[in-house]
Design a protein that fits this description.
Layout: E1 6-12, H1 30-38, E2 40-42, E3 45-46, H2 52-61, H3 65-68, H4 84-90, E4 94-99, H5 124-129, E5 139-142, H6 154-162, H7 202-219, E6 224-229, H8 267-271, H9 277-283, H10 299-329, E7 336-342, E8 347-348, E9 354-355, H11 362-365, E10 366-367, E11 370-372, E12 381-383, E13 387-388, H12 392-399, H13 414-417, E14 426-432, E15 439-445, E16 448-453, E17 459-463, H14 481-497
Parallel strand pairs: 1-6, 1-7, 2-12, 3-13, 4-5, 4-6
Antiparallel strand pairs: 2-11, 3-10, 7-11, 8-9, 14-15, 15-16, 16-17
């Protein structure tokens, strides 16, 4: 039997597809550039959902959010759903998750228990004894916050205390939140320089603990599936020096709103450019709408955010480099399939938008996606073969020489990763944001992208070849009528093609 590869999945959080030094000279990412040089960069990778929980659940289940059940932020992936970690563990792999999980909500309600919520997040006695098994991972070390959010705690806080930082709470937002505290404004950090010591940042923790799992598996001579799940560059925009001052805001190519581009878009696009919070509140229906607020910000402030965002990315890249070096030191690089990606993209002024998550532009849906497997993946190649993160689980199983369960609806991308034929002609992204608002899906093929909403007559249709900036919505244009009909037909067929089949038909009746 051929040697089964080790599998190392490295992810960031909310990273724009352009933030790779290999494609963007404005940013320095030597470790990721190394993966580009030693492996294949896929330039048409997409997320199954533009928010954290649904996509992260899709990564480990090989199912779309509408199938695995964690369909939105604030929902839970139930522990009885089969995962890639469970399948690989049963085949003799050591499985571990280090870093951000976000499989569960920040509250426990309706009998749905979450361990990723306060006050349990800061109950360090609980987390000292909780290392798995969890979602198919034998060993887990996790942390829930982004930057200096109040959700800090869990294994990361224990690590900080072990390193001597017993007052770590002083570096994070208070819990419970202080009423009227200006820090409650999510993105507002007047000083984007974080006073937290650089060596105690969570990116260092993620790298250090991932390397420990590599050593553990190597010492036991056991194949491994490790997920190094970094938290950055998800805002708030704050990072220690020297990374906070690494980039000059004056040199940032900030995204911009093209005059009139939202005129043909659904009304919620235009409302992001108006100071009309009451309109958004009327549509929340008790749900939080990520990206549902007025978003106009001064260009100079976005430039500062972007410079910090780049610094957060470069800091993370440095720590990814440490992990890659550890594979080399242990003599494991040749036998390890490494995949780098992120859970979804990010807006930094493009289309007048900030962050995420109800505007399905390429900035939000497209991802950086790198694959390195020496002797299997072409080196130094860029590919346009369409990828979706839901494909990771079935492809990892195939690489390990295992059968793919019929319940997984992602496709096996191994041939495409090896430089062969593309496995997909299309990709679908789901987004179900509430009980009655912003429930939509997007279909993208080699050239076109179309978005359909559950209710109403609005939609988006873009020609990515002629209009890569997506400033001309063709949805209502008479000359695009036949194209829209053709794409809607393709969309429906793709939905049928993506249906799960848990078992084959074994009898006539």
């Amino acid at each position: 039997m051929p040697r089964r590869p080790n599998i190392l999945l490295v992810t960031s959080d909310q990273q724009h597809y352009s933030t790779l030094g290999a494609v963007n000279p404005k940013i320095k990412t030597p470790a990721l550039d190394r993966l580009c040089a030693e492996g294949t960069r896929f330039d048409r990778a997409y997320c199954p959902n533009p928010t954290c929980t649904p996509t992260r659940a899709s990564i480990i289940t090989g199912m779309m959010p509408s199938e695995h059940g964690a369909w939105s932020l604030g929902t839970k992936l139930f522990e009885d759903v089969p995962t890639i970690g469970g399948h690989l563990q049963a085949a003799g792999y050591f499985t571990s998750l280090i870093g951000k999980a976000h499989f569960q909500p920040l509250a426990t309600r309706f009998g749905m228990e979450s361990i990723e919520c306060q006050p349990l997040l800061r109950d360090l006695d609980y987390w000292r004894t909780m290392h798995g098994p969890w979602y198919g991972f034998q060993h887990v070390e996790t942390a829930r916050m982004h930057a200096d959010e109040s959700h800090a705690g869990q294994h990361y806080a224990i690590w900080m205390e072990d390193k001597g930082l017993t007052n770590w709470r002083d570096y994070f937002q208070p819990w419970p939140p202080v009423e009227g505290d200006s820090a409650k404004e999510y993105y507002v950090r007047e000083d984007r320089t974080w006073k937290l010591p650089e060596e105690l940042h969570y990116s260092v923790w993620t790298a250090e603990r991932t390397m420990a799992q590599i050593d553990r598996a190597a010492d036991d001579e056991q194949p491994f599936f490790l997920w190094a799940s970094f938290h950055d560059p998800h805002p708030p925009y704050v990072v220690p020096e020297p990374w906070a001052g690494m980039y000059d805001p004056a040199e940032m190519d900030v995204g911009e709103l093209t005059e009139g581009e939202h005129d043909a878009n659904p009304v919620h696009f235009r409302k992001t450019q108006e100071e009309d919070r009451a309109w958004w509140e009327q549509r929340k229906d008790g749900e939080t709408i990520h990206g549902g607020h007025p978003q106009r910000r001064p260009r100079e402030e976005i430039a500062k955010d972007m410079a910090c965002y780049y610094g957060m990315t470069s800091f993370m890249d440095q720590q990814i480099g440490r992990i890659l070096d550890r594979l080399d030191e242990r003599g494991l690089a040749e036998d390890t399939l490494v995949v780098f990606s992120t859970d979804h993209g990010h807006f930094l002024g493009q289309h007048g938008l900030t962050a995420k998550a109800i505007h399905h532009y390429e900035d939000l849906l497209r991802l950086p996606f790198l694959v390195r497997w020496p002797g299997h993946t072409p080196a130094g190649r860029a590919s346009d073969a369409i990828q979706n993160l839901v494909d990771l689980a079935p492809t990892f199983l195939t690489a390990a020489g295992m059968d793919v369960p019929g319940v997984m609806t992602g496709v096996n991308q191994l041939d495409a990763w090896r430089g062969g034929r593309p496995a997909r002609r299309w990709s679908i992204t789901e987004n179900h944001h509430g009980t009655r608002c912003f429930h939509m899906r997007t279909y993208v093929n080699e050239r076109y992208k179309i978005t359909v909403y559950r209710d109403g007559e609005d939609g988006e249709l873009f020609d990515l070849a002629e209009d890569p900036a997506e400033v001309r919505n063709l949805w209502r244009e008479p000359e695009a009528k036949d194209l829209k009909a053709e794409l809607l037909h393709e969309f429906l067929q793709a939905t049928l093609q993506g249906e799960p089949m848990r078992m084959p038909r074994i009898a006539g009746a």
